[in-house]
Amino acid sequence: MERIHMNDIRDILYRLKKGESIRAIRRDTGHARKTIRKYRDMFRAQGLLGEDSCCTRISDIAGVLRPDKKSAQRISTVEPYREKVKGYLENGLSMRVILRKLREEYGYRGSYSSVRRFCRRIDPKDPEGYCRVETKPAEEAQVDFASVGKDIDGNKVWAFVMTLSWSRHQYVEFVHNQKMKSWLQCHENAFRWFRGVVKRVVIDNLKAAVLKRHLRDPVLSEPYRRLARHYGFMISPNRPRTPRHKGKVERGIRYLKGNFIAGEDLETLTLERMNEKVKVWVMEVAGVRDHGTTHQRPLARYNSCERSALSALPEELFEDICAYRAKLHHDCHVVVDSRYYSAPSRLIGKMLDVYVGRRVVEIYHGTDLVATHPLVKRRGGRSTRNEHYPPGKREWLEKTPQKCRQLAEQIGRWCHLAVDELLSDRVCDRLPSVHSLLRLKNTVGAKRLEAACRRAVRYGDPRYIRVKTILEAGLEYEPLCEQNRITMSRQSYRYNRDASSFFLAEVV
């Protein structure tokens, strides 16, 4: 006879007391009728099925089922505070709050588990009921990952399982990780295995598929969203911590572990050999078994109806996208596979999602697209957009000498002459001074700057510090002093004495 957990036995007792039939209990719990009938007879002999029976604790049931064995239950450490705990429960306090109050008011030293067990014992809850959801052929598939051990190289192995909800036919693939690339590739392999696509895929909230779960509004990852759009299926994330919402694939995983995994020594196999053997197992063992719910063979059920109801595969292959998580460094670049891509400076220090396609690289902050770049082919190469730098920093890249001459010419003739003279210096780099001079337009305006440059050039000193001094003193519109003004052209100088006068006459 099958072994049943004590909680399941209590559930059977509860259902029998409510008058449910053995057939209904078998349908809901999955236990054999012979097993349920055995416990029914045992409970009836002990008088536990009467309306006046209050035997609901596991310890009481264990005492009935095994009267010859001593109960291992000890008196709870919360027992001295029974009345207080009852009052707390009646007032709606949670078990965490009850534990805190017991510690603060009575110096209780026990654990939360003790409080939880005691509360459930004195205030047992009725088993929660669920709705069984049935789907039409090709309407739904359920997907999940499961850890199954290690391979011959000692690498951890995960099983990707996709189960068709109507036929219960499965696709199983072993991988070394749950990263985005593996997640997307396994979906494509599964659709090719089934030779079609379902309308909806029910998934868990793993990071490769769901970035965040805001109440009932999941934030899907961009690569998975694109895969769904390409193949034409709808993504249906279940609620967190509710694996029963994808119970068909959960049962399929348990069957995989209890049948295939239990019968194979995975540590003696490579990943490739595992995938070869599991495909044979799906077709020759799992696919031809009498399924406990449908009482039909999943493979025959799939071939007879569901295969023809699946949507056709798209003609074009899905463009592979490699996903990375990268931090934006202080140089406004993320590093992906030894290649550098820029992103806005406001995101420095943030973790960004980088999706690398065949031709284009897209950078996301959450769900916001913040940058796009052509794919860099060479390792160590860079793709930079100047607008991603802070405004005060990118000036060095944008304002080249030629650009500065153009900006100065837009201000006026004298500003252009001043800038051209500064940039013509062959000894000292005057570009920083030119940048500062052109920035004066933002504070004093183009007209005053042009007048100040005219005065500085006419006096032969167009440096930034001289132009700024003229503006601060308000002298840009003052008339020029003719006797001190020098001409714009360079004056030529000559020595007052001939060079031969500096040397003694040759003595004969």
Describe the structure.
Helix content is 40%, strand content 15%. It is an alpha+beta fold. Helix 6 (95-106) crosses helix 7 (112-122) and helix 16 (431-444) packs across helix 17. It is elongated. The model is unreliable at 68-72 and 486-492 (pLDDT under 50).
List keywords for this structure.
508 residues; alpha+beta; 4-stranded antiparallel beta sheet; 18 helices
Gist?
The protein is of the alpha+beta class. It is built from 18 helices and 14 strands.
List the helices and strands and how they pair.
Elements: H1 6-17, H2 22-29, H3 33-45, H4 58-65, H5 82-90, H6 95-106, H7 112-122, E1 140-150, E2 156-164, E3 170-175, H8 180-194, E4 200-203, E5 210-214, E6 217-220, H9 222-231, E7 234-237, H10 247-263, H11 271-284, H12 298-309, E8 322-327, E9 333-336, E10 339-342, E11 351-356, E12 360-365, E13 368-374, E14 382-383, H13 395-398, H14 401-411, H15 413-423, H16 431-444, H17 446-458, H18 464-473
Parallel strand pairs: 1-4, 4-7, 10-14
Antiparallel strand pairs: 1-2, 2-3, 5-6, 8-11, 9-10, 11-12, 12-13
Helix pairs in contact: 1-3, 6-7, 14-15, 14-16, 15-17, 16-17, 16-18, 17-18
First and last CA, distance: 139 Å
* Count of alpha/pi helices: 18
Estimated helix fraction: 40-55%
For the largest beta-sheet, the strand count, sense and barrel status come to:
5 strands, mixed
- What best-fitting shape do the alpha-carbon axes yield? elongated
Number of strands: 14
